């Protein structure tokens, strides 16, 4: 066994009496079969921890894992911020030359970037905006415009390059290529009668602006010109302020039989949205990064939108690439700036269990194309998409035989669990609630595309409780965009805008809803959809129905010693 202690010494032997100081030193010394025991404290990384196939067969665990004496271990990519001075305006400032971050944590609390709602009369031009309001002329710093609802399911971010003006008007010049890309991407045409009909462009109307000292309110920050500006909450102590600086905490490539037990991964950022390319979100964790754009026609030709031909995807702050038989147990992934945890590339039999994923700027967990027989079980994923509101809690894309079971997913700004095209996904006995809190056109559980080639190889969505799907125009359990070979069985779906949807474009094929309980009749089943043995209950009847109670009792996290410690 090897030992690592933040107060240790890398020149020592790594024993309990003389532990190493860094994880990198322990990695270099570990052999297959080694247990690396991390002592209590914050293990700060100055560069990502990188594992290769040669680092396989090693267990990294909190000291005393699985016992009452288990120690609290944090692997952090953050930098403490000190040297604060209070100015006459009550704002505290700290010189941070070279610091690049999009997040700040004060005593563990996420401090939001200073922001204002844009209710100014902005007119879009080829290079930005003009307004007869002179106020933007006083906005100093590296300002960013946010476009909530650029599409109903999308939220974009574009940097501002320059603001000029006088006492009567202002001109906002936007950074390129982000602004030009946004004007081409967020173009739609709705030809049916009703709200939103006609031609529109999501770049016309930014909804808020961020990151100017002029926008500060209590508890928020702005980073401008190498200076952090922070307006404290009443009585707040600035003795523990951390700025995430690493974009990657751990990147493991081609490893196998590696375990991380009882460890918290924390304090990472993702800087791409600050670049001139901005962050032009499309769906899930996908965004436009230049290249081909396509026009998608839907609703029998009554509408069309522009979409990326080959979207880029938000990266993980903890990444396992081509990895197999990796176990993450009793861990926590928190204060992350992109996707908290990502499995990418071909790999098999990786497991996340009894863990917590929370306070994440982007997506929670992503299992990507090529993954085989991965499992996420008994894990709580909540307060996801804190900065990037289209991000889902759990996303499967191109996976095979993935199982999501007995998890709890809540407090998500868009969809909770997303299953894109793949094969054999099983979404079983999860509790999904308080999703769709910000954006529209999504669901607590969202499934799209082909899920197999037969009933036996398709997706199974069973035993889940989906409730409190909040914003208008959502579906608690949403089978969408040509979903095929999906069985939706024995779920409870209520308190959504609509519990399920049957008519989508492209149409559903080989989709069966059987034995479900919901609070609204979904209507007649079109060709390709089978409805069998489902029960529609009035909302007040849900608490008293025995069939509902049995499903509710079996859904969500089953308490274990490690989940109790993780919370």
Could you walk me through the main structural features you see in this protein, from its secondary elements to its overall organization?
By secondary structure, the chain is mostly beta strands. It has four helices and 57 strands. A hairpin with a 4-residue loop joins strand 27 and strand 28. It starts with a strand and ends with a helix. The model has no long low-confidence stretch (mean pLDDT 96).
Please give a handful of descriptors for the protein shown.
567 residues, mainly beta, twelve-stranded parallel sheet, 4 helices, 41% strand, PbH1
Terminal Cα span: 28 Å
Range of strand content: 35-45%
Q: Classify the secondary structure makeup into a structural class.
A: mainly beta
Instruction: Tell how many strands the DSSP assignment holds.
Output: 57
Average pLDDT, to the nearest integer?
Answer: 96
Uncertain regions spanning at least 5 consecutive residues: none
| Count of alpha/pi helices | 4
Give the biggest sheet. Answer: 21 strands, parallel
The rounded Rg comes to 24 Å
What is the helix content?
A: under 10%
Q: Sum up the overall morphology in one term.
A: globular
